[in-house]
Structures are given as C-alpha cells and as structure tokens.
C-alpha cells in the first residue's frame, strides 16, 4: 500500500488527546505538581541498597552448589585484612599488638561469622609436628600469649613448623592476615547487613591501626561496596555538572532561559517520579545502578528538546503558546510515545538476565522511562502553553529556525538518491562484515586483574595487589566439591587418590597459584611419619594410616564434611580474568569427563571465582538472546506505530549496526562484557531508537502529503534534524564527563553511552534515507527538493 493511503487513525487519536489535554491543562498541571511533591519526598528518603546475594546468578548450576553448602564450607562474602610491617619482618611486639587488636575487633563486629575468623590469634591456626610420640601440635600463638621477645621467638619457631607461611603469614614474613566470612542476614534479627556502616567500621580499623611502620590492607565485598558507595556519592557532582552543561547548551539552542528551564525541570521531574515510585514499590537503588537516574535525565532532556523545538517553530509561525503546544503534542505524542515504549522495552529486556542486580536495574530504568509518558508528553506541553516569549527571544528563535533551512540539510537529503545511497550502504555493509570478524575477540567477564570497577591506583586495588604479591593462596578462590557416594570416604584410598590426581591436574593449569585439599594434608603427614623420606610422599593405601594422618585436622579448615562425603578442593587463582576462569573451568570439566572413579565426582563451584565463572556464563548466554528480543520488540513497536515493514526496516537496521559496532569499541578499549556493561548496550539501543522514530515520523508525514522522498526527508531534517543533532551532542557531552569519575566502571559506561548516543544519531540521519531509497517504490521517491536561500 502506498504511503499516501495509510490510515489516519493515529492522527485522530493525537488530535483528540491534544484537545483534551489543553482544555483541562490547569487540572492536569495541578495534579502533576501534587504528584511531583509527593514522589519527590519519597525519592529523597531513598537509600542505597547493596547486597552480596544480588550479584549471584542463583539459577546457575554452580550457584546451586554454592547455596547448598555455603553454611558448611563458607560463602564467598569474605573480608581479608593484611597487617604489614613496612620495615621488615613482623616479629616485633608492636606488630603483634596491632594484629591481636584487629583480630579482637573483627571477632565482635556485627555481621561477622565468628566461627570463620582466621588469624594467628585464633585457635584454628596451628601447627602439627612429628615427634617420637607421633603427631604433636598446638596453636601457633598460645592463648596466654604476651608480646615479649621470648614469646615472639616461640611463635616464630611454631610458625616454621606449620604450613601457614604463604597462607595466613606473608611469604617474606612481613605480615599476617585476618580473614572472616560475613553473614548477609542476621539469623536472629533477620536484618540485612548494612554494608555502608560495615565499610565505615573497616575504615575506622585502618585509621586506628595504620602507622608509619604498619600498613593495613583490606579487601572483600564489604570494603569494595563501601568504596563504590563513596564513589557514588561523588556522582552527585557529575549530576550537577551535567545539569549545568545541559542548561548552557539548551539556552544557546533555544535562545530562551524560560525554555531551557522548562526542559531541565521536566527532566528533573521524571527523575524524582522514578526515585519515588522505586521507593514505594519497595526497590532499593544498588550502588552499581546509581547511574540510572543520569540516564533518565538524559532521555528526558532528549524528548523535551524535540517537543520544545516544534513548539518554537509554531510560535515563530504565528501561533500563540497554547496553539503551538497543541501542535507540538499533536505532532510528537505518537512517535514520542513509541520511542519511550521502545526505550522501556530496551531496559525491560535486561530483566531476562537471571542476576538480581541486573533485574533490579532493568526495573528501575523501565519505571523511569514509563513516567516520561506523563512528564514529557503531558506536563511539558502544558508548561509550554503558559510560556510567553519576549520580542528578543522571538527574534532569536526565528533566526535559529531559519538557520535550520540551510544547504547542509539539502546536501544530506541527497542520500535518498540511489547513487549516493549505494555508497553509504556499501560502507555500512563493510562495517558489518568487519564487526563480525572482530566479534569473537569480545571478552565476557573481567579483562583486568584486581577490581576493574576501580582505577588501578585506587586504594582497593593497591590493597589487593599487596595481598596478591605476598601470599600464595591468592584472592580468587574457586572451590570444587569432591562428592563421594558413601560415608567415611575421607579414609578411602581410591577416592583420595582420585582427589589427589585432580589436585595435581589443577596445579598444572596456567593461572592456578596453589591448591588446597585434604589429600595434600594426608600426603604431607604421611611423609612426616617416615622422616621426610620422599618415597612416602603419597596417599597410604591403609585406611588406618589415612585416618591417623587426618587426626586432629580442624573442622574449621573446611577440608571435609561431617560425614566425610564431601571434600572441597580450593583452587587459588592468580587473577579472575575471563581467560583464567575459562581455562581453569575447562580443565575441571575435562577431568570430570575423563574420571573413571564412579564413586566420586567433582562438582563446581563455590568461592568468589565460582560466582564470577557462573556470572560470565549467564552473561554470555544472555547476550544473543537479549539482542534478538530487543530488536524484535523494537521492530514490533515501530511496525504497530507506522503499520509499515519498510518503516520498521529503516529504523531498526541502523540500530542493529551501531549496537554490534559497540562490541568493536569494547574490544579496542579493553572493556569486557559483564554485569555492568551488558545493560549499557541494551540501554543504548533503547535510547538510540528515539532519533530514528522522530526523523522517520516527520518524513512519513510529508510523504503522506504527496511529497517526494527527498523533499520529505529534507523537511524532516529542517523540523527535527537540528533537535536530533543537538540532543545527541548534549547527551554525549554530558555522559563523556563521566570519564573523570573516581569509579572506572562509571568511566567505561560513560564512554560506551557517549558512543551509543552520538553514533546512533549518525546512523539515523545517514542510513535511514539511504535505506528508504531502495525500500520504497518509485512513485514514493519521485521529485527533487528545492534548496532555500
């Protein structure tokens, strides 16, 4: 069917709504302001709501293992405090006084599982030696220890008899660790741990005990999220900077402070409604999703600029404020609503990722976009209807609008000519081929060691590097459970030998720093029984000998379960880069496939590295599915709006090309696809569709009136092209300032969003006319545009 004969139902709906809105504008404005006051109050009471379990993909098979056995073998929510003597070895009274003080404070902290606290001053850190009577042992630091030179020398002697060097004591003897697991929910009060308060207590420990001679290094989820919260508080400054930049650019673009204030006010109202509704619905704002209100602000500004620009054109053409507001609503409500629904779909699609923190982010963002149907499409036209431009402002607006009627748009409209369109489409096709060739280089997971959410010189990463360099156990633990089919398997030679074989295989995988398992304890004690004769460095075949070797092994070491059916194997990794996790997990899977002992299986995975591996798999599987659903949903909404497959193709194809090119950008910038970046791509598509819908809606309106494709596109560029370009530049500059954030993940998101905002604009204004020139029949393309002076 020809464009000229398409149904006018959409226009009739817009016409009816415009009349109803402005007829009762005072009522709608009053209701809107009352709702704004109420929701703003709710939003101001919103608090950050971090949680360790929110980052866990609980449906993944690995995490089922994690949740089933976390109470018995400990979770991955752990803090590690490294007390370091800067001047040399730790055997000084001052050092032991500090270590004992920190251990005592950690033991009584709310949120700490006291059973898991590990330090030289806790009874679960001991030594075992072989004497004439057999195995003897005791605590490395006695319960009645006093930091005198004689007792310190005794501790030093005990330490060399133990296997704690490299585990709880630094390899160079410069310091020692205090380790403890956290309890996410208090079993008595049922209250969740306050991570912000907990992180403040850790900071207080650092401030209390750190001196010129003693350094305190702290890592773990709690200090990590504490640093994120600190960085998130600095986000407020970026919020203010973005508002200032946007206001200045808006004032320059609109030529009126009143119009600039109307745009800013509408965008801020959208953010306040979002935060208020999120609070009412019971959702908290996670520190990792603190940037969502920024995105809502940017989208709000984008839509407000389009509405304001069309209103200005109406006023310059002689309409009064009310008539211009009605005309702007009539023109933009349907395409704007379609764009916002598409935005909401873009955000809503990420809810399909089975990770609570991402689902929460998707819900919060969708709520923010949904409220814009009321704030931007209803409240803004009402506000504009009350604005009166002065003669000076009217002249500036008239000059600005006449400036839009220039030769650049006429030149760009020639892309509807198939001669020029062919060049554009061939170039786009070449980019598509290149993107496919680079696609495989995109890394799922972390690209860097340490915490990639922070800059390399951040306090957290400096602490992590200090611990990584001084200990052999590593910071990233991958725990594989050796599950036997019968009780008492700890003393079964066949099973223990299979576990020992597994340990040996893992020790020889690149990226593995060390491995801890019960089989190693048995081997070490067995050789001790035979005066270190290397012939006996193995698993004894006699059950009684094995039983003797595991005698007095502390249950707190989490080397076996109470019934000896489960024996965890802890693999300490050099880092948690995606390549390292993939390599080690592949080795685990290969061993399971080749394992011929049917009485024991090796079940992944626990530990923080296990969570990361599961998360990476979820993200990798979700990527293609999300992209497919996202583009399908956006395509359906575009089709329903325009009732045209041709229109849908013209809008969706540029979006898809820009989205896949984003993968190339991530490859070259060294940004991995993970929890914090996958939503950005979905959001970028949701936001980018705005440009295409606004441009195509105006182009189609002119084609409906019988104008040629080139003329129609030229007129659409005059009407909304300047707004589209200005919006893109404003949003790009706003998010580009994030590069200077203290949080590296915010800087990464800023780079990606800046790319998506700007390149989506280029894709819309260049690819849409080129595609339309080949998709629409000749009768809709006939005619040429007359350039204006």
TrEMBL record:
Location in or out of the cell: Cell membrane
Q: Does the keyword Membrane apply?
A: yes
> What does the UniProt keyword field contain?
Cell membrane, Membrane, Transmembrane, Transmembrane helix
Q: What Pfam family is a match for this entry?
A: MMPL
**Its topology with respect to the membrane?**
Multi-pass membrane protein
Q: Can the keyword Transmembrane helix be found in this entry's annotation?
A: yes
Q: What is this protein's record name? A: Exporters of the RND superfamily
What phylogenetic lineage does the species belong to?
Bacteria, Pseudomonadati, Pseudomonadota, Gammaproteobacteria, Thiotrichales
């Amino acid at each position: 069917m020809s464009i000229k004969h398409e149904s006018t139902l959409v226009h009739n709906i817009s016409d009816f709504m415009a009349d109803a809105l402005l007829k009762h504008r005072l009522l709608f404005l009053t209701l809107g302001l009352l709702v704004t006051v109420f929701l703003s109050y709710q939003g101001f009471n919103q608090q950050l709501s971090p949680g360790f379990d929110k980052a866990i993909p609980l449906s993944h098979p690995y995490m089922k293992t994690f949740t089933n056995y976390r109470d018995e073998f400990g979770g991955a929510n752990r803090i590690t405090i490294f007390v370091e003597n800067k001047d040399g070895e730790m055997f000084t009274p001052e050092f032991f006084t500090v270590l004992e003080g920190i251990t005592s404070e950690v033991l009584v902290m709310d949120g700490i599982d006291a059973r898991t606290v590990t330090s030289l001053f806790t009874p679960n850190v001991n030594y075992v030696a072989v004497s004439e009577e057999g195995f003897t042992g005791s605590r490395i630091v006695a319960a009645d220890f006093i930091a005198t030179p004689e007792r310190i020398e005794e501790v030093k002697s005990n330490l060399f008899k133990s296997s704690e060097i490299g585990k709880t004591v630094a390899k160079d003897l410069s310091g020692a660790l205090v380790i403890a697991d956290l309890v996410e929910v208090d079993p008595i009060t049922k209250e969740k741990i306050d991570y912000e308060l907990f992180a403040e207590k850790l900071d207080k420990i650092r401030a209390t005990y750190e001196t010129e001679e003693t350094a305190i290094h702290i890592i773990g989820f709690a200090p990590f999220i504490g640093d994120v919260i600190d960085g998130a508080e600095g986000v407020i400054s970026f919020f203010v900077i973005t508002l200032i930049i946007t206001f200045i650019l808006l004032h320059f673009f609109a030529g009126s402070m009143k119009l600039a204030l109307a745009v800013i006010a509408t965008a801020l109202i959208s953010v306040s409604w979002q935060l208020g509704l999120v609070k009412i619905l019971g959702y908290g704002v996670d520190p990792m999703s603190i940037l969502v209100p920024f995105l809502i602000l940017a989208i709000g500004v984008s839509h407000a600029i389009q509405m304001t620009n069309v209103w200005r054109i109406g006023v310059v053409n002689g309409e009064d404020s009310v008539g211009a507001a009605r005309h702007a609503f009539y023109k933009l409500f349907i395409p704007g609503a379609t764009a916002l629904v598409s935005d909401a779909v873009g955000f809503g699609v990420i809810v399909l990722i089975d990770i609570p923190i991402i689902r929460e982010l998707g819900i919060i963002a969708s709520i923010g976009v949904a409220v814009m149907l009321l704030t931007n499409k209803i409240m803004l036209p009402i506000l504009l209807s009350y604005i009166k431009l002065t003669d000076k402002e009217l002249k500036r607006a008239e000059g600005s609008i006449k400036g839009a009627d220039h030769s650049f748009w006429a030149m760009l409209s020639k892309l509807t000519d198939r001669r020029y369109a062919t060049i554009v489409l061939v170039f786009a096709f070449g980019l598509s081929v290149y993107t496919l060739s680079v696609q495989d280089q995109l890394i799922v997971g972390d690209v860097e060691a340490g915490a990639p959410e922070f800059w390399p010189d951040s306090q957290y990463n400096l602490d992590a590097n200090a611990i990584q360099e001084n200990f052999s156990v590593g910071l990233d633990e991958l725990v594989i459970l050796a599950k036997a089919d019968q009780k008492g398997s700890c003393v079964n030679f066949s099973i223990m030998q299979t576990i020992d074989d597994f340990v040996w295989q893992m020790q020889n995988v690149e990226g593995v720093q060390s491995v801890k398992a019960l089989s190693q304890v048995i081997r070490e004690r067995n050789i001790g029984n035979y005066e270190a004769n290397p012939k006996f460095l193995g698993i004894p075949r006699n059950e009684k000998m094995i039983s003797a070797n595991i005698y007095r092994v502390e249950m707190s070491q989490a080397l076996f379960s109470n019934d000896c059916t489960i024996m965890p194997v802890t693999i300490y990794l050099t880092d948690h880069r995606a390549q390292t996790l993939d390599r080690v997990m592949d080795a685990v899977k290969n061993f399971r496939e080749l394992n011929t002992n049917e009485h024991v299986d090796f079940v992944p995975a626990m530990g923080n590295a296990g969570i990361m591996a599961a998360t990476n798999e979820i993200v990798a599987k979700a990527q293609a599915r999300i992209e497919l659903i996202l583009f399908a949903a956006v395509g359906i909404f575009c089709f329903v709006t325009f009732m045209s497959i041709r229109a849908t193709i013209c809008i969706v194809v540029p979006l898809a090309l820009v989205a896949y090119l984003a993968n190339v950008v991530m490859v070259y910038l060294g940004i991995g696809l993970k929890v914090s970046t996958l939503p950005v791509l979905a959001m970028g598509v949701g936001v980018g569709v705005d440009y295409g819908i606004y441009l195509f809606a105006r182009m189609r309106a002119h084609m409906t009136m019988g104008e040629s494709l080139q003329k129609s596109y030229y007129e659409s560029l005059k009407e909304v092209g300047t707004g589209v370009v200005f919006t893109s530049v404003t949003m790009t500059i706003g998010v580009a300032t994030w590069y200077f954030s203290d949080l590296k993940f915010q800087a990464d998101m800023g780079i990606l969003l800046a790319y998506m905002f700007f390149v989506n604009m280029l894709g819309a204004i260049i690819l849409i006319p080129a595609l339309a020139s080949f998709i629409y029949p000749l009768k809709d393309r006939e005619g040429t545009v007359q350039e204006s002076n």
